[in-house]
Amino acid sequence: MIRKPDQYNSLNNLIGWITLVLSASVYLLTVEPTVSFWDCGEFILSAWKLQVGHPPGAPFFLILGRIFSLFSLGDQSKAAMMINILSALASAFTIMFLFWTITHITRRIITRGEQIQKKQIVPVLFAGLIGALGYAFSDTFWFSAVEGEVYATSSLFTAVVFWAILKWEEEKPKFSGRWIILIAYLMGLSIGVHLLNLLVIPAIVLVFYFKNYRVTAAGVAKTLLFSAGILGVLVFILLPYIVKIAGWFEIIFVNGVGLPYNSGLYIYLLLLIGGLVWGIKYSITKKRKILNYSLTILTVIMLGYSSYAMIMIRAQARPPMNQNDPSDLFSLIYYINREQYGSTPLFTGAYYSAPVKSVKEKVAGYIKEDGKYKKYQRNNYVFDERFTTGFPRMYSTDRNHIREYEYWGDIKGEKISINTSQGPQDFVCPTFTENLRFFFKYQVGYMYWRYFLWNFVGRQNDIQGNGNVLNGNWISGINALDSNRLGDQETLPDDLRKNPARNTYFFLPLLFGLLGIGWQYLKDKNSLIVIAILFIMTGLAIVVYLNQYPLQPRERDYAYSGSFYAFSIWIGMGFFFIYESLLRLMNHKISVTLAMLVSLLAVPVLLVMQNWDDHDRSGRYTARDIGANYLNSCAENAILFTYGDNDSFPVWYAQDVEGIRTDIRVANLSYLSAGWYIDMMRQKAYESEPLPFSLPSEKYRPGEREQLPVYEQVNRPYNIQEIVDFVGLDDKRAKIDFTGRGDFFNYVPAARFIIPVDSSQVLANGTVKDYQTDRLLENVIWTYKGSELYKNDLAILDMIATNNWERPIYYATTVPPSNYRGLEEYFQMEGLAYRIVPLDTTGTISGDAGYIDTKEMYENVMNRFKWGNANDPHVYLDENNRRMFNNFRRMFGILALRLVEEGDTLKAKEVIDRGLEIIPREKIEYDYYAINLVEAYLQLGDAESAVGIMNSIIERSKQYLDYIIRLNRPERYGLDLETALSWQSVITLLNISSNYGLDSIFKELEPELNMYYNELYYRPG
Q1: Domain ranges of the chain
Q2: Alpha helix locations (H) across 828-869?
Q3: How far is it, in rounded angstroms, from Cα 768 to Cα 755?
Q4: Which terminus of the chain, N or C, has less C-beta within 10 A?
Q5: Who's near 768: CB < 8 A, 6+ residues apart?
């Protein structure tokens, strides 16, 4: 009996929508109710007010985010949730289209293009269900589905585009062209979200080839080369040169003819649009079908790409967030091409050890000046050609990266002697074999296959992995196999064994995918090639293109979600392998029922059970509250310096979206090295007045004062304003030729700066409190640490000099100490920020730097700060949260110690109790960062509570040390931090037990300390 196709289609459509509802329900139950860490804060605030985020921007995503944010109905605190829901719904729609993709492919395979039979319907639909839900509840995809980032929306574009080419495949030729036009338009739109969608092109071209041509091996190879050419033309020629050609017109008509700014752009747009309209009309009149398709495809791609006009329009409005200020054509080109991040070599380049042969200047861009566009230059380093290679993988000159290159590539290299200004020197040049070893072991093995196995075999924990056996690896749940790779899993430290992200799938999703590959190979090799190309292009091809350096700041699995999408199609087909194998042994009903039960339990049910606890972000408000806590650490009208993503984006979100402490100006030190950012700081933002600078904007332009040598001409301190004025001079007498090539640079003539202090002013405005006057200084003498002063350092000097103690200036506690530049001598801790104060801090208890104002800090941590439900047993704290709250636990201990020293034991006890309430042991085990609490308890005379925490720290430290010493020494690579913290914990607690007469603990620890030292550090001979 033949089932009518419309009946199958009805069921297929219905179950597709059911998968959407089911996956959407899970995502909405587990979505984060507010901002998340990393880029989410910046994307949300940019969408909320259509501001300009970091390059290359995501204008179409921001437009969608803005629309969704309107459903908050004016409640600013709900805006983030609405944009997170955009990701949740986009992800759910992705799952629906994946379901329809799997059912389409499997139906065509088993029916060979004929009508589907009744008994085939349930297996086809269930194959789609298993594959789609398997992907829905996989680690990487679920993570992106519950936060306001671009990757969920990007995945939806990938899913729809691939589904659309399958719809084209079965469409009548008369109407099939509309699907190609739709695909082109969607790809144009997707560029305004993320470029990942373009990687579907080779798979699309293959589908076109298999339908229209006789299949041969040579034909497949030519098709793949042709598709690679299309992709290359689109990525490297069409998209960049659409804007670059506009730049040529702008130069001609502004610099050449003398017309106003943007004249060339408007003329170019008129010619471009007019040319496309005329060309399409001509192709219709002359019945040139291929020309018509080509021009229409080009037009709709550009129509989608035109979302980038929003970036330029909004930049001209100068919103508070206006990264790179792409308000003119050339800054937009710079923005789209991500030039602020530098270039990564792809086809050819120099190894990390390459000596510089010469330095040449090249045109880096154009800036507006006096009605024209003026070129600015940047240094272009020319390296010794003997260190240049094709397919360069090891190029970063960062010392930490070099160490990783040497480890992963097992670098022996070859010595090359070169004559330098210091005489002949030997340089080690890696071999091409070592270059490939790093590529396969690190970039492919660690930065791709590890993520792949996370999703389909199991994940060790949620801790950032940098190559060691304890953190961030894949695991299977099969102890013998895992222990062989990662050390004895039975002796893992408790907090690693109990980590919510320790998810074990026992190879089952992977096995289903491999069975699906085998099934498709036997049934239809052509469709296997299509899925395989999709899998490779969205996985390994990205590995090659990104060319990542080691020690990435965060895990990058999200970049490869398209590859995991493709593998999930095979998981669905794995159901058919199980079903057809059972069909040889029993009848259809029993076979399909048994295959359904086995598949459900082995893939989607298993993934949900394992992944729910570490993907459930409901009830977690930590990122928002921590961002607000940074702001609430500061006095009114303050300037707050931050550094990284997680101490900047949540802070910006708190201000821009929820309106928290908009009187404070947040300045990211990483961005202060850019002239556009300094200009952004010169404008008023909300209630915050412009930042004070004395040097005009042109002194900070690109290519100006990027790097200033500190060249001490006199051994005495100089007034800081005089130093700033001197560095700002363009007179050749204020410059020095350090290279000997006649290139004169500005420099800093002294390493000590006098910051004058008006005592009446700093007392009047609260910089110095009444109870601090005994330590007030007449002048602050800032001894600059470093032999060079960079543009961001110059901006800080300028700001401090011009500010003259009028506005409070703070550094976030998360700013790396290397960025203090010697100012830490005048830091005062008031919460999550250090305030620069003109006080003598000699002899005061400190945290990482500076002295503690206990009155301000007590008020902040006890009454002003919020903690985002961190102590709720149902709220999941991932590694980012645990790391931050560990530092907060230490902060509570530091404050308690200072209060005890001041004699305020009552408040000290309150602080300790509050710290333990906010960060209980059940959420984060006591470790090195809790030692201050131990000492505070002992100084309060509460030995029982102190010993309880000490025993917990000792137990945890010993578990880590015992685990590490069981490893062979080569297996301990990358465990330096875990070893050092555990070792230091034992040493510190041994000293504390000795100082406070805790003899039983001292007698227990002393022999164990010797044993650990011998195992970890002692080297005979």
Answers
A1: 1-149, 171-336, 339-430, 623-866
A2: 854-859
A3: 15
A4: C
A5: 759, 762, 776, 837, 838, 839
